[in-house]
Amino acid sequence: MAKILIVDDAEFLRMRISKMLIGDGYEVIEAENGALAVEAYKTQKPDVVLMDITMPEMDGLTALKEIRAIDPKARVVMLTALGQESVVLEAIKSGARDFVVKPFERERVLSAITKLLA
Q: Considering only CA atoms, which of 29, 89, 91, 31 is closest in space to residue 61?
């Protein structure tokens, strides 16, 4: 089964997504900021990354650019709060493959992952 890296500074959100994905048979890795996400990407080679945009230490846009520099084929889905449309456009230009607006529906997250793994 596919390996998913979940990147968000909110532990409850990482736990919620992890539980959902593990229940669907995915292997899950977690990181609490962009810097840790870049390191996890290098060592764990996940199939898909779900990444928050606003985080301490290194934000999601910077981490997205670093991950795409390591692996131009990286499949990254940005997790975004309502009202961050300009940031989402920047993320898409920087190589994000999709985005999910928080608070999200379970089906929306799973469909984004399924689409990228197809």
A: 91
Domain ranges in the chain?
A: 3-107
**The overall pTM is greater than 0.90:** yes
What string of pLDDT tens digits covers the 118 residues of the chain? 899 999 999 999 999 999 999 999 999 999 999 999 999 999 999 999 999 999 999 999 999 999 999 999 999 999 988 777 788 889 999 999 999 988 888 999 999 999 999 9
Domain spanning 3-107: which CATH class is it, in words?
alpha beta
How far apart CA 64 and CA 80 sit, in angstroms, is 13
H-state helical runs in the chain: 11-23, 34-44, 60-70, 85-93, 106-117
